[in-house]
Design a protein that fits this description.
By secondary structure, the protein is an all-alpha fold. The protein has helices at residues 2-28, 46-53, 55-88, 94-102, 109-123, 129-148, 154-165, 170-181, 183-199, 215-223, 229-252, 255-263. It has twelve helices and no strands. The radius of gyration is 22 Å and the shape is globular.
Length: 266
C-alpha cells in the first residue's frame, strides 16, 4: 500500500511538472496587459485576434503543417522500405546503414543544417520548399525506422511466409499481413515524426525566407525584437491543437492498444 501510494504521488508530481507550464502559457495568453503576466491581469482574447488577423502567422502555420505532413508521409515510405530490407536480410554494411539512417537522432540539427545547405548550394536549390522538405525528411525518418524495425520479428516473418504459401502475392501479403503487424510502430513513429518536424527550428531556419517561414522560426524571429502575449497566444494554439490531435488519435486508434501492440514485440 505504501509503495503504491508513493508511486501515485510521484506520478502525479511528474504530471503536474508537465502540465502546469502549459497552463501558465494558456493563462498568460489571456492577459489584458501588453506584456507577459501570470496570473493574467484581466481576461481578453485580443492576442488571439492579433494572431488570426496576421497573415504571416497563418502562412507560417500552414507551411509548418504542410511540410510536417509531407515529411511524415515521405518518411513512412522510406523508413518502412529500409526497415524491411534491414530486418529481413543480413549483408555486409548492414550495421553501418542502421547507424547512418539513425544518426540524425544524435547529430546536432545545426550541423545537419549546415551540411545540407552546402549540398543545396551546389544544386542551386537554396531556400526553397524542396530543400526545407528534404531537411525535415532527414530528421524524422529515424523515428519511423526505430519504431518499425523492432516489430519485424522472426515470428512476424513466419506469418508472411505462411501467407505466400497460401497463394498471397507480395503486395497482398504486405497489406494484409505485414502492415497490420507494424501498424503500432507506424502510428507512433508517424506521430513523433510529425511533432519533430512541426516544432523544428534549427534546420528550418536555414531555408526560410520572408514568404517561406515555419511557425517555430516565426516565433524565434519575433522574440528577438518583441516579447508580448502574442507569443503566448500562438503557443496556446499549438498546445490546444496538439491535445486535440492526441484525443483524436486515442479515439480513432486507441493509445492503449498501440502500447499493448508495441509491448508484445519489444
Amino acid at each position: 500500500m505504501i509503495a503504491r501510494a508513493f508511486t501515485r504521488i510521484v506520478a502525479l508530481a511528474a504530471l503536474a511538472y508537465l502540465v502546469v507550464p502549459l497552463a501558465v502559457i494558456i493563462g498568460t495568453s489571456l492577459t489584458s496587459t501588453s506584456y507577459l503576466a501570470f496570473p493574467p491581469q484581466g481576461i481578453t482574447l485580443k492576442w488571439y485576434a492579433v494572431v488570426v488577423n496576421d497573415e504571416s502567422y497563418i502562412s507560417a502555420f500552414v507551411t509548418s503543417t504542410l511540410v510536417a505532413v509531407a515529411a511524415t508521409l515521405a518518411a513512412l515510405v522510406l523508413a518502412v522500405s529500409a526497415a524491411l530490407a534491414l530486418a529481413r536480410h543480413r549483408f555486409a554494411g548492414r550495421a553501418f546503414l542502421i547507424a547512418f539512417f539513425t544518426s540524425p537522432l544524435i547529430l546536432p540539427h545545426v550541423v545537419l543544417g549546415a551540411a545540407i545547405i552546402q549540398c543545396a548550394v551546389a544544386a542551386g536549390l537554396v531556400r526553397s520548399i524542396w530543400v526545407l522538405l528534404a531537411r525535415h525528411i532527414v530528421i524524422v525518418m529515424p523515428f519511423v525506422l526505430r519504431s518499425v524495425m523492432p516489430l519485424l520479428t522472426a515470428e512476424q516473418r513466419q506469418l508472411e511466409e505462411a501467407s505466400m504459401d497460401l497463394g498471397g502475392g507480395p503486395f497482398q501479403t504486405f497489406f494484409l499481413v505485414t502492415l497490420p503487424q507494424i501498424s503500432a510502430g507506424l502510428v507512433s513513429g508517424a506521430t513523433l515524426a510529425f511533432i519533430s518536424s512541426w516544432i523544428n527550428v534549427e534546420l528550418s531556419i536555414f531555408s526560410t525566407t520572408a514568404t517561406l517561414t515555419t511557425i517555430p522560426v516565426k516565433l524565434f524571429n519575433y522574440v528577438q525584437y518583441t516579447v508580448d502575449p502574442t507569443i503566448a497566444a500562438v503557443s496556446a494554439v499549438t498546445i490546444v491543437l496538439a491535445a486535440g490531435a492526441i484525443i483524436l488519435l486515442d479515439s480513432v486508434v486507441g493509445l492503449n492498444l498501440l502500447a499493448e501492440r508495441r509491448s508484445t514485440h519489444l
